[in-house]
């Protein structure tokens, strides 16, 4: 009866008609419509927050609606910081940005902090509203950091406040929207203090709040910190006893955080594996969460092949909607874990090899399919190429497409090609990835050679030179005389002492194939393996790949009796 009375407003009736025209479910007397489709006016703060939360949960993004709500919020909540901060966080979750509203919230929070009247819940909401939109306000955020640190010292911070605030600060850190330093404390002290307080009061945190803490530490990318490592192990012990409460999103957060922070704990990996074996949990994994799970298990070289096979099936299900970032991450993780999935790699190859530069029909496909290699970064292209190399996918059209993408890739910071700003190890990794499948794109290899020649000789380390020669020997690439002198400078006699036995043997084999004269290398190899043939005896006749002899096909009768 109350719902029927509220719907009688003109605005509510119009919104209901619009909802029916757009295919929304029809509401009956038993199912009340959402609040943002009902209320014609916003008489008080409670109604405002109810309507805003209803619209945000329904992903309602009408800018006129949110602008009207924001003007009402500034009028109704001008003396209530908590209500205004709550509305600002709700509007931000719907991706509505009102700079005036955020400045008002920040000014009210700073004024409350100066009068020692800032509550933990209000502080968390202020930081959350700024973090969702990556809104930079150094004065407000710096003061909120100081107030959070003071609350930790005085034991005033609640579990919800600590988890939400650290997560918001980490999101601002990832977006480069944090000030250089806060007014009263260093950020490292704040993180260590928060980790210590959270570790001492883990029983007060819910599973969602523990996952927020983990996500914060992953965003800050903290490694090797004793206090943070102790916190992660404590959270692992707590979550391992609550496996049934972990959602698919929680599984992705946990796996990625422990991998990013380099904290290995077999208990949490076993708990995640048992949870992810449930079909209902796996099917709810989004593409981002699936990428995080695979990254976590691959980083610690998980040997649970059965689980990784199940996850590879989920990757195939999401493959049509993956962009270059997610596809490179997933394939690289599966390749690192040593999972053989020919069906997945075959489908990925078909997606990436359909378009070739200069093809007129390729334009429409690049628009329709989200995996556009022209938008991929250099690191994503490198990871994708190495993944196909580890899977031993020898497709000439695919690698031609990848080589062209490397040449066309632009740097994200400077208006130049990405290849020109890469270091020697990264350039050699590109050559190594193509050489693993015995493919040598002429233009790409030529560009890499030219860039290596333009670098100072001391920038090329001995191990990088060995890796480079080993890759060139696989494809029997002809080295220019200038490049030979550049490489020989990195393989001087006193630098060969840095190499181990297997690296010396690898270098010896590459030198024989490429016809390089290294007397010091020959002396060292002869001392290790006296019966090994010398380099000079085979330098004039480099080894070639053996060609199998053709045999005459046997008849069906002979095949039957000789199998």
UniProtKB/TrEMBL annotation:
Q: Where is the composition biased (Basic residues)?
A: 546-563
Q: Where is this region: Disordered?
A: 532-563
Q: Which InterPro entries match?
A: RESC6_dom
- Domain (RNA-editing substrate-binding complex 6 protein) spans 189-348
- Report what the protein is called: RNA-editing substrate-binding complex 6 protein domain-containing protein
């Amino acid at each position: 009866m109350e719902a029927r009375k509220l719907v009688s407003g003109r605005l509510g009736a119009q919104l209901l008609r619009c909802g029916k025209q757009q295919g929304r479910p029809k509401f009956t007397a038993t199912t009340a419509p959402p609040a943002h489709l009902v209320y014609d006016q916003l008489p008080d703060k409670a109604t405002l927050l109810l309507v805003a939360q209803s619209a945000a949960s329904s992903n309602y993004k009408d800018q006129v609606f949110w602008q009207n709500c924001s003007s009402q919020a500034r009028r109704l909540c001008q003396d209530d910081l908590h209500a205004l901060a709550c509305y600002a966080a709700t509007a931000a979750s719907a991706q509505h940005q009102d700079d005036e509203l955020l400045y008002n919230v920040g000014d009210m929070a700073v004024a409350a902090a100066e009068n020692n009247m800032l509550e933990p819940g209000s502080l968390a909401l202020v930081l959350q509203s700024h973090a969702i939109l990556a809104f930079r306000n150094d004065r407000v955020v710096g003061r909120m950091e100081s107030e959070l640190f003071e609350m930790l010292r005085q034991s005033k911070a609640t579990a919800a406040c600590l988890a939400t605030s650290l997560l918001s600060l980490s999101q601002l850190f990832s977006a480069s929207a944090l000030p250089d330093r806060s007014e009263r404390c260093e950020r490292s002290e704040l993180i260590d203090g928060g980790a210590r307080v959270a570790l001492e009061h883990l029983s007060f945190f819910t599973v969602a709040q523990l996952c927020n803490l983990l996500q914060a530490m992953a965003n800050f990318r903290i490694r090797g910190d004793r206090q943070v490592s102790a916190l992660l192990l404590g959270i692992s012990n707590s979550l391992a006893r609550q496996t049934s409460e972990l959602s698919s999103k929680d599984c992705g957060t946990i796996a990625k955080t422990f991998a990013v922070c380099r904290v290995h704990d077999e208990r949490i990996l076993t708990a995640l594996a048992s949870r992810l074996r449930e079909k209902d949990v796996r099917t709810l994994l989004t593409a981002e969460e699936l990428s995080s799970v695979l990254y976590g298990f691959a980083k610690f070289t998980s040997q649970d092949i059965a689980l990784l096979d199940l996850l590879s099936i989920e990757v195939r299900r999401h493959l049509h909607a993956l962009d270059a970032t997610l596809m490179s991450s997933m394939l690289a993780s599966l390749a690192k874990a040593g999972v053989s999935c020919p069906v997945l790699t075959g489908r990925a190859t078909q997606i990436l090899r359909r378009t070739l530069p200069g093809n007129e029909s390729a334009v429409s496909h690049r628009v329709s399919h989200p995996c556009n290699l022209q938008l991929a970064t250099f690191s994503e292209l490198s990871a994708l190429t190495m993944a196909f190399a580890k899977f031993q996918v020898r497709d000439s059209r695919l690698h031609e497409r990848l080589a062209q993408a490397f040449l066309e890739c632009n740097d994200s910071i400077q208006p130049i090609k990405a290849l020109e700003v890469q270091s020697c190890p990264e350039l050699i990794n590109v050559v190594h990835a193509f050489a693993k499948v015995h493919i040598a794109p002429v233009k790409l290899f030529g560009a890499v050679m030219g860039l290596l020649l333009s670098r100072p000789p001391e920038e090329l380390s001995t191990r990088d030179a060995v890796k480079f020669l080993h890759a060139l020997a696989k494809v029997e690439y002809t080295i220019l005389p200038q490049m030979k002198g550049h490489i020989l400078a990195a393989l001087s006699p006193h630098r060969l002492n840095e190499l181990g036995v297997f690296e010396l043997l690898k270098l010896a084999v590459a030198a024989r194939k490429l016809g390089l004269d290294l007397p010091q290398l020959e002396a060292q190899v002869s001392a290790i393996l006296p019966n090994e043939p010398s380099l000079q005896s085979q330098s004039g006749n480099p080894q070639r790949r053996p060609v199998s002899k053709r045999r005459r096909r046997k008849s069906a009768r002979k095949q039957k009796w000789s199998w």
